[in-house]
Amino acid sequence: MKKYHLFSISVLSGLLLALGWPVRGFPGLLFIGIVPLLFVEDYISQNKHRFIKFSLLFYSLPAFLIWNGLTTWWIYNSTGMGAILAIFLNSLFMAVVFNLFHFSKKQLKNNTAGYACLVFYWMAFEYLHLNWNLNWPWLNLGNGFSSWYKWVEWYEYTGTFGGTLWILVVNILGFQIIRHQASGIRSRKSGISEEFTPNSSGLQHPTSGIRHLVSVIRHPVSGIWHLVSGIWHLAAGFWLLLILIPIMISHIIYKNYKEEKHPVNVIVVQPNLDPYNEQYTVSPTVVIGRIIKMAGPELDNNTNFLAAPESAIQEEMWENNIRTFSSIHLLRDVIRRYQNLNILIGGSTFRRFEKNEILPGSARKFTDTNAYYNAYNSAILINASDSLQLYHKSKLTPGVESLPTFGRFKFLERFAIDLGGIVGTLGTDKIQKVYSTVKTVKVSPIICYESIFGEFFAEFVKNGAEVMFIITNDGWWGNTAGYRQHFSFAALRAIETRRCIARSANTGISAFIDQRGDASQKTKYWEPAVIKGTINANSKLTFYVKHGDYLARIAVFCGAGLFLLTLFLWFKNRKQLNNQMS
Question: Contact 559/540 with Cβ under 8 angstroms?
Fold first, then answer.
């Protein structure tokens, strides 16, 4: 095989993964998407004398570049440099993980242990991608079923890492089956008797086992081929069942799941402000006035919640005296007319630090004094109680809201991507807050990018949230797959936690999502809209909510053990080689 063939095979893997990705892809392709890359790795392993170190890194990188590029190119609409960095770095990380698997497989000299490394390393990488400053879990494999969520209703037990594990195991098994069948064909072409050529149905007769044994004795090569062919058919059947059984279980769960009736009446507003030319330039009171005017005809005394999107309030509100701002006064006027109403809305807020407070890395210095302050992307709950309840976005968007700005890296703040509003590293909350409401259930807000993080989302539910609100601004990416992918991930969060979700987008898709992941009253992109509906609260905790990403933590532990064993064997082999040379 020529080396350019390996690049072609790598490209095939990238195309399969991209064609299997939400929202218009078919996720069945994800079960074979990694198989071509496994053939590339196997060929390099079998012909290592022809390749230099880290060859697999370069041969696998095209697959990941194509997958990342074709599925997340829309980032370019908001930031060209950000898109290039996100696509290249994420692809490089994936290629490095694949190369680590190749390295471990070579040192362990055991295929089973080697492919176990792929599973554990990949899941550990995805877990890292959920929990570090350069987080970008958009392409975590388990997210690939978000448009076909009825296949994975069992995420309430495993979270998305169950989907990642499923995809990896099916790909590895599929590769092994094809590889062994191909080996059998090569053996057959090298001189197997036609008398023992297996028919298409494999082992069909009760006495076939005896005949196979006789054939092994009389014609060893052809007999073994016959046996292997029968085993291949059984393995192929098992591979297919490994795909179909989880899907069937999921459909059974879906059909049998019934929501208990605990109604909550919600109005969601999609104001449709242009994030580039309108949202941060129009007067804050005009924006709030538009939201109130849109919601007004739907409001009544039975309305429990009015939800408006992320960053809807662009008045520079200081939390030290937040009640004094005009946007808050306008919303409180609505509360005075509807005493049972709770308004949940996004806004930009700031807080000045007192002299004796410990400053976080996100603290900013006033230009004219020695004082410091923090900026936040906040969700605000306003109701008839005296106090306002604030939650500060905690999973920040890399490059926009989060940069390595500590110590010597503070200068990187100047390279923050400016999407309007506050620029640079924001302050965060350390706990997932649950709002106390007036005469209704406990709820929690999720702000935009946070809705990708399953365990993080589940922590709000674990803390007592009975209904979830997602407030977002999906207008940055234009009319692309970006906002549709983001919306589709909400179905997975609903399934994992069995919580209804009210989703308010500035523009994009606003909707109500029930506890099975079904969406209703979906709004259209780039159209102002108001939707009114009743969703059910739920106080029960799923297995996933209780235990979080336990599969990922197991993978991290096992992967660390295998990697340490890999390093031990590598050092041992190097020492033996050095002794022989000396």
Answer: no
Say what percent of the chain tops pLDDT 90.
72
Amino acid letter, residue 484: R
Distance separating alpha carbons of residues 259 and 557, to the nearest angstrom = 37
The sign one gets for the Cα dihedral 36, 42, 46, 52 is positive
Tell me if 381 sits within 8 A of 344, measured CB to CB. yes
Other CB atoms within 10 A of residue 256 CB: 8
Strands 467-472 and 443-447: parallel
pLDDT of residue 282: 87
List the beta bridge partners of residue 347: 313, 378
pLDDT at 206 over 70: no
Pick the closest to residue 415 from 400, 431, 433 (CA basis): 400
Residue 266 and residue 532 in contact, taking contact as beta carbons nearer than 8 Å: yes
pLDDT of residue 432: 96
Q: How far apart are CA 33 and CA 139, in angstroms?
A: 13
Half-sphere exposure of 532 (CA within 13 A, CB side): 10
pTM of the model: 0.89
| Encoded tokens for 558 | 């096992």
- How far apart CA 354 and CA 227 sit, in angstroms, is 78
Q: Is 400 exposed, middle or buried (0-12, 13-18, 19+ CB in 10 A)?
A: buried
Residues 6+ apart with CB under 8 A from 529: 269, 270, 272, 510, 523
Residue 126 pLDDT exceeds 50: yes
| 286 pLDDT above the threshold of 50 | yes
CA distances from 471 to 35, 263, 444, 506, 525 (A): 38, 21, 11, 8, 15
What span, in angstroms and rounded, lies between the C-alpha atoms of 236 and 234? 5
Token code pair at residue 132: 């570090």
Angle at the Cα of 250 (from 245 to 251), degrees rounded to 5?
A: 100
Averaged confidence pLDDT in the chain: 88
Task: Render 480-544 in DSSP notation, one character per residue.
Answer: SHHHHHHHHHHHHHHHHHT--EEEEESSS--EEE-TTS-EESPPPTT--EEEEEEEE------HH
Q: How many CB atoms lie within 10 A of CB 358?
A: 6
Backbone angles phi, psi at 351, to 5 degrees: -140, 130
For 150, the token pair is 């009825």
* Per-residue pLDDT reduced to its tens digit, 222-233: 555 455 566 667
- Residue reference for tokens 């192929």: 236
| CATH topology for the 263-545 domain | Nitrilase/N-carbamoyl-D-aminoacid amidohydrolase (3.60.110)
Q: Is 278 helix (H, G, I), strand (E, B) or coil?
A: coil
Angle between the 220-256 and 160-189 helix axes, to the nearest 10 degrees? 160
Phi-psi region at 229: left, alpha or beta (left = phi > 0; alpha = psi -120 to 50): alpha
List helix spans (H) across 190-207.
none
Give pLDDT tens digits for 14-42: 999 999 999 999 999 999 999 999 999 99
Q: Looking at the predicted structure, is the pLDDT value of residue 172 above 80?
A: yes
Backbone torsions φ then ψ of 425, nearest 5 degrees? -65, 130
Backbone φ and ψ of 259, nearest 5°: -75, 140
